[in-house]
């Protein structure tokens, strides 16, 4: 068995994913812990890796995500775009805790295509991992879509993150489905349904999303959409507007690289196909790990 060399941690708001890695970045063991929103990150990290410490001693740790935010272990300032992999690694906050060398990766900030400031934490690690796994993505211009509660559309040119735009699509859908009259007590989203397709078609209208959302209610009460399909229609409407707006903001052509879970990739892939965009899939967890391994090599080698 390979000798353990370091610990990589993808530390989001709600969950910590831990990897015990060998010198070449191979995963020797996996672990989990509570998210960065729970107090005492230092104590909870020590508890989560205690068994590894007993076996290998206090190994260096590279941590990314919300652990570097105001709610995390230590706040790490955002790095301004354009940002290259070496600059992201160089801006990490490095310190020692209980004899362990720790590096927390910074997030990124930019002025987005809408002209407003935008920020990310965690997604930059996935982008670095995607570039490491496929070096061709570090050449030329590429656009990545990173679906989630706050979806990120990210532009990379010759290996540097140049700008990005956050879309509140995931959170907006959940808020509307749970707390509004639009799709309450309806079935799960079915991306193959006629209702989802109708939502995508409706989203292509020039009207703003605010002037289309109530149609999720009106189509149901008039019988145009079955009540059980209201969530599918609403999802098609929200995601259709998300992709349609991004297509305009980033002048999307040909390919958009999806970085996410397989389930979200299947959903967004159908939407992107409606805009004649191919969507190769990059597994989000694998990309995050590859990014952490890359940053460890930059910092500790």
Q: What labels describe this entry?
A:
301 residues; alpha/beta; six-stranded mixed β-sheet; five-stranded mixed β-sheet; 10 helices; 14 strands; 37% helix
How would you summarize the topology of this molecule?
Elements (H helix, E strand, L loop, with lengths): L3 E8 L3 E8 L4 E8 L6 H8 L1 H7 L4 E5 L13 E2 L4 H6 L2 E5 L2 E5 L3 E4 L5 E4 L2 H11 L7 E6 L4 E7 L2 E8 L1 H11 L14 H10 L11 H7 L8 H20 L7 E4 L1 H13 L6 E3 H17 L1
Parallel strand pairs: 1-4, 4-7, 5-8, 10-13, 13-14
Antiparallel strand pairs: 1-2, 2-3, 6-7, 8-9, 10-11, 11-12
Helix pairs in contact: 4-10, 5-8, 6-8, 7-8
Strand content: 25-35%
Overall helicity? 25-40%
Count the DSSP helices: 10
Q: What is the distance, rounded to the nearest whole angstrom, between the alpha carbons of the first and last residues? A: 21 Å
What's the alpha carbon Rg, rounded to whole Å? 21 Å
Structure summary, number of beta strands? 14
Task: Outline the low-pLDDT stretches.
Answer: none
Question: Which whole number gives the mean pLDDT?
Answer: 96
| Helix and strand run | EEEHHEEHEEEEHEEEHHHHEHEH
Order of strands across the widest beta sheet? 3-2-1-4-7-6
What kind of sheet is the major sheet?
A: 6 strands, mixed
Structural class: alpha/beta
Q: Give the CA-based shape.
A: globular
């Amino acid at each position: 068995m390979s000798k353990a060399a370091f610990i990589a941690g993808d530390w989001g708001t709600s969950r910590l994913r831990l990897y015990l890695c060998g010198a070449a970045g191979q995963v020797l063991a996996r672990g989990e812990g509570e998210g960065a929103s729970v107090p005492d990150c230092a104590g909870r990290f020590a508890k989560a890796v205690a068994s590894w410490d007993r076996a290998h001693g206090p190994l260096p740790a590279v941590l990314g995500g919300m652990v570097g935010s105001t709610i995390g272990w230590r706040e790490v300032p955002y790095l301004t775009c354009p940002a290259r992999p070496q600059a992201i690694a160089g801006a990490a906050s490095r310190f020692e805790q209980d004899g362990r060398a720790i590096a927390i990766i910074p997030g990124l900030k930019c002025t987005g295509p809408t002209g407003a400031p935008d920020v990310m934490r965690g997604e930059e690690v996935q982008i670095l991992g995607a570039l490491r796994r496929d070096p061709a993505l570090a050449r030329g211009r590429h656009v990545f879509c990173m679906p989630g509660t706050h979806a990120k559309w990210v532009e990379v040119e010759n290996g540097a993150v140049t700008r990005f735009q956050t879309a509140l699509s995931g959170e907006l859908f959940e808020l509307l489905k749970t707390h509004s009259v639009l799709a309450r007590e309806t079935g799960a989203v079915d991306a193959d349904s006629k209702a989802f397709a109708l939502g995508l078609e409706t989203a292509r209208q020039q009207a703003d999303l605010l002037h289309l959302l109530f149609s999720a209610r009106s189509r149901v009460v008039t019988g145009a959409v079955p009540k059980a399909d209201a969530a599918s229609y609403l999802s098609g409407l929200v995601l259709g507007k998300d992709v349609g707006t991004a297509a305009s903001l980033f002048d999307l052509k040909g390919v958009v690289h999806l970085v996410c879970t397989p389930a979200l990739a299947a959903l967004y892939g159908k939407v992107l196909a409606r805009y004649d965009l191919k969507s190769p899939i990059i597994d989000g967890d694998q990309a995050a790990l590859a990014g952490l391994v890359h940053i460890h090599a930059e910092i500790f080698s």
